[in-house]
């Protein structure tokens, strides 16, 4: 399986702007710029998209891990905070809250750690990955 996205940048790094599109068209000419990346401007940025990818991948992997352990989650909600420091992504911090009938807190932690280690985006990232896992 292959997936793709396209980015087009126009102009200088600070004054320029760009647009990103994904194969699925979920992003279709989404605006990004210096201001949306390093300040609080309108538009998206690469770090926000990495955070979404990591949260989504981790949540789905956790569902698979729980299923393999005999549990079906009612809900998994994951937030991911990406830290960009001195031109490098240094940390991806996952915070998950889940409702999983019948699971012990210890078993949930074990499953969450497995998902953190083995989701494809975790394997892709070359940074510190932190995890906070809570049962609802």
Rounded mean pLDDT is: 97
How is the largest sheet built, in terms of strand order? Answer: 1-2-3
Q: Name the CATH homologous superfamily of the largest domain.
A: K homology (KH) domain
Distance between the termini: 35 Å
> Which radius of gyration do the C-alpha atoms yield?
17 Å
Known CATH architecture of the largest domain: 2-Layer Sandwich
The helical percent reads 25-40%
Number of strands: 6
Q: Runs with pLDDT <50, length 5+?
A: none
Q: What class would the helix/strand composition place it in?
A: alpha+beta
Shape: elongated
How many structural domains? 2
| CATH topology category name of the largest domain | GMP Synthetase, Chain A, domain 3
Largest sheet: 3 strands, antiparallel
**What is the H/E string?**
EEEHHEEHHE
Just give the CATH class of the largest domain.
Answer: Alpha Beta
> Count of DSSP helices?
4
Strand content: 25-35%
Secondary structure layout plus pairing:
Elements: E1 5-10, E2 17-22, E3 30-33, H1 34-38, H2 46-68, E4 75-85, E5 88-99, H3 105-118, H4 120-124, E6 128-135
Parallel strand pairs: 5-6
Antiparallel strand pairs: 1-2, 2-3, 4-5
Helix pairs in contact: 2-3
